[in-house]
Specification:
single chain, 575 residues, alpha+beta, eight-stranded mixed beta sheet, five-stranded mixed barrel
Length: 575
C-alpha cells in the first residue's frame, strides 16, 4: 500500500509494528493463548477472600499511564474489565522494555493482548486483574472510532448507519448493544429449532439454485450454469421442495435458510433474507394457527424473559391466543366495501373509488392484495391472524371447506407487517395444475411476479400428498419484533448495501498527458487535487508548496518540481 493512502495514525501504527519486529516481538503470534476466563464471569464470580489466578485475552480499549503503574481496559467476547499493570510485575528482570517501550508507546487502542494475573478489587471498588505477564497477540493497524464523553455528552460516535452496516465489524466493537441483538437472534433460532425438534419434525436442506423459481409470487435473481448451459434461479421460497418431502413420507419437515428476491430495498426488505418454512402432514390451517401462536409466545419468553416485546414505543403481547379475522371482513371494516362475490371488473371500480393506482396487469387477487395492503395491513399492531383469502390470491392453497371462492390460508400481522403466511396445503394435482395455468395467464399479461408451472412438483402431487399444513415465517422481521429494532438492517449482520462511493480521480494516463509523472500523481491526490480540473485555477507557487510539503512530510525522496514545471501542469490542465 502506498504510504500516501494512509492516515497519519495508520503510518505511526505501521512504524510501531516494524519497531516491535525489530525488538524480536512477533505482532501476530501463531501459538495458542490458553485463556481460562471471561470478563463478565470474573466479575460475577468474584470473592473478596480468594486470590483467583486468571488468563484472559481481549482488545485494548483504553490506557491510563501513570509512571511505573498504569490502568488499562480490555474487551473480550463477553464484555470489558480493568487491568492494573505495573512495570516491575510484567518486567521482573532488568530489561524493562515490555513496559517502557511496548506497553507505554508501541501498543495502540484496538490491539489484542493477553493478560495473566490475579483478580482483586481496587480502592474504588472496581473488580480488576493485576497483571503479572502481558503478551501482544495481534497488532491493529487502523484506529478505532472510540467514543469520548465530556460533561455527559458523547463525541466521535460511530452512529452513521451507512458506516455501521458497511463496517459491521467496527460497529460490533465500539457500539454497546449491537452484539446483544445478534445474540438474541441466535436465541430466536435456537428456540425455534428446539420447538420443532421436540415436536418430532426434521430439519432438512433444499436447493438454493433452482430451475423453476416456485413457492411464492416474486421476481427472482437469474444466473447461468456454464457446464449445463442453462439458466438457474436463486430460490424465492423453499415450499415446493419441502412438499416433495411430505409426498416422500416425512411426518414434518422444516428449513431455516436464505431466500432471494430481486425486488426493492427498504427498512423492512432486503434482497437476501432468512425464512423458516414448516410442513406437517395430517394438519390444517386451524391447527397451524394454534401451533404458531404458542411457538411465538415460547420464543418471546426465551428472548425477553416475558411474553411481551416493546417496538417503536408500543408493547406487543405474544400471549396466545391471537385474534382471527377473515380478510374480506377486514377490508369491509376498514374501507366500507364488501368484496364478497365481486368480479375483477367490480373490484377495479372499488379501487378507483378508493383513489388507488392500479394497472391492467393486476388480476383479481393482486387487486384485493393492494386494497388490503393500503388500508388494512398497517393497522394491526397486536398479533392478528388474517384468514380465508380469495382463491385468486392463493395459488398453492386448498379451497375452503365451507366458503366457496375462498381458501384455507392465514397471514399473521404484527405491528402492521406480515410476519407469517400459512395454508391448508393444496394437494389436488388437477386443481393445482389449473391454478398454475391461471398464474401463467397473469404472466402473459405482464405480471413478472406470477408463478411458473413446476411440472416436477405436479408429478410429485400425482403420486399423492397427504392432507398437510404449511407455514413460512420471516426470521428477520421476527427478530426485529423481539429486539425492538425498527429496520431490517439492524438485525442482519451484513445487509445488502449500495456500492461504496469512491472519490472521482483522473487516471495516471490523463495526468501524464499534462506532464505529471506517476510519482507526483499520488502526491497531488494527497494534497487534495484528485481531478485535473482541480488545479487549473491554482496559483503555481501554492501548488508547488503543497506537493513539496507532502514530499518532505512523508520523506518520499522525490526531486521537487520547479515553479515553472508546476505552472506548465496548470497551463496544460486548461487545454
Amino acid at each position: 500500500m502506498n504510504v500516501l493512502e494512509l492516515s497519519e495514525q495508520e503510518i505511526v501504527r505501521r512504524q510501531s509494528l516494524q519497531e516491535l519486529r525489530n525488538m524480536g516481538i512477533d505482532p501476530y503470534p501463531a501459538a495458542e493463548y490458553p485463556t481460562n476466563a471471561f470478563s463478565t464471569d470474573i466479575k460475577a464470580d468474584f470473592k473478596n477472600d480468594e486470590k483467583r489466578e486468571v488468563c484472559i485475552a481481549g482488545r485494548l480499549m483504553s490506557r491510563r499511564v501513570m509512571g511505573k503503574a498504569s490502568f488499562a481496559e480490555i474487551q473480550d467476547s463477553k464484555g470489558r474489565i480493568q487491568v492494573y499493570v505495573t512495570r516491575d510485575d510484567i518486567c521482573p528482570d532488568d530489561n524493562k522494555d515490555l513496559y517502557n517501550a511496548v506497553f507505554k508507546r508501541l501498543l495502540d487502542i484496538g490491539d489484542f493482548i493477553g493478560i495473566k494475573g490475579f483478580v482483586f478489587k481496587t480502592q474504588t471498588g472496581e473488580i480488576s486483574i493485576h497483571a503479572q505477564s502481558l503478551t501482544l497477540l495481534s497488532k491493529s493497524l487502523k484506529p478505532l472510532p472510540i467514543v469520548k464523553y465530556k460533561d455527559g455528552v458523547a463525541y466521535d460516535k460511530f452512529d452513521d448507519p451507512e458506516l455501521r452496516f458497511r463496517q459491521r465489524y467496527v460497529d460490533l466493537i465500539v457500539n454497546e448493544g449491537v452484539k446483544d441483538t445478534f445474540m438474541k437472534r441466535a436465541k430466536v433460532l435456537e428456540t425455534m429449532r428446539n420447538y420443532f425438534n421436540e415436536a418430532g419434525y426434521t430439519e432438512v436442506e433444499t436447493p438454493t439454485l433452482q430451475s423453476i423459481p416456485g413457492g411464492a409470487s416474486a421476481r427472482p435473481f437469474i444466473t447461468h450454469h456454464n457446464s449445463l448451459d442453462i439458466d438457474l434461479y436463486l430460490r424465492i421460497a423453499t415450499e415446493l421442495y419441502l412438499k416433495r418431502l411430505i409426498v416422500g413420507g416425512f411426518e414434518g419437515v422444516y428449513e431455516i435458510g436464505k431466500n432471494f428476491r430481486n425486488e426493492g430495498m427498504d427498512r423492512f426488505h432486503n434482497p437476501e433474507f432468512t425464512c423458516m418454512e414448516l410442513y406437517v402432514q395430517y394438519k390444517d390451517y386451524n391447527w397451524m394457527m394454534s401451533f404458531t401462536e404458542k411457538l411465538l409466545e415460547t420464543i418471546c419468553i426465551a428472548v425477553n424473559g416475558k411474553d411481551e416485546s416493546v417496538f417503536d414505543g408500543k408493547t406487543i403481547s405474544f400471549k396466545a391466543p391471537f385474534r382471527r379475522l377473515p380478510i374480506l371482513d377486514a377490508i369491509k371494516e376498514k374501507t366500507g366495501y364488501d368484496l364478497n362475490g365481486m368480479e375483477e371488473s367490480e373490484i377495479r371500480e372499488v379501487c378507483k373509488k378508493l383513489n388507488m393506482e392500479i394497472d391492467d396487469t393486476m388480476g383479481k387477487g393482486k387487486l384485493i392484495d393492494e386494497i388490503f395492503g393500503e388500508f388494512c395491513e398497517g393497522t394491526y399492531v397486536q398479533p392478528t391472524f388474517i384468514i380465508d383469502y380469495p382463491v385468486e390470491m392463493s395459488p398453492l392453497t386448498k379451497m375452503h371447506r365451507s366458503k366457496p371462492g375462498l381458501t384455507e390460508r392465514f397471514e399473521l400481522m404484527v405491528n402492521g407487517k406480515e410476519l407469517a403466511n400459512a395454508y391448508s396445503e393444496l394437494n389436488d394435482p388437477i386443481d393445482q395444475e389449473e391454478r398454475f395455468k391461471e398464474q401463467m395467464a397473469l404472466a402473459d399479461k405482464g405480471d413478472d411476479e406470477a408463478m411458473l408451472i413446476d411440472q416436477d412438483f405436479l408429478r410429485a402431487l400425482q403420486y399423492g400428498m397427504p392432507p398437510t399444513s404449511g407455514i413460512g415465517i420471516g426470521i428477520d422481521r421476527l427478530v426485529m419484533l423481539m429486539t425492538g429494532k425498527s429496520t431490517i438492517q439492524e438485525v442482519l449482520l451484513f445487509p445488502q448495501m449500495r456500492p461504496e462511493k469512491k472519490m472521482p480521480k483522473s487516471s495516471i494516463a490523463e495526468w501524464a498527458k499534462i506532464g505529471v509523472s506517476e510519482d507526483w500523481v499520488a502526491v497531488l491526490n494527497k494534497s487534495g487535487y484528485n481531478l485535473i480540473s482541480d488545479i487549473k485555477d491554482v496559483n503555481p507557487q501554492k501548488l508547488q508548496m503543497d506537493v513539496c510539503g507532502i514530499n518532505k512530510k512523508y520523506k518520499l525522496g522525490y526531486d521537487n518540481p520547479k515553479v515553472d514545471e508546476v505552472a506548465l501542469w496548470i497551463e496544460n490542465s486548461k487545454l
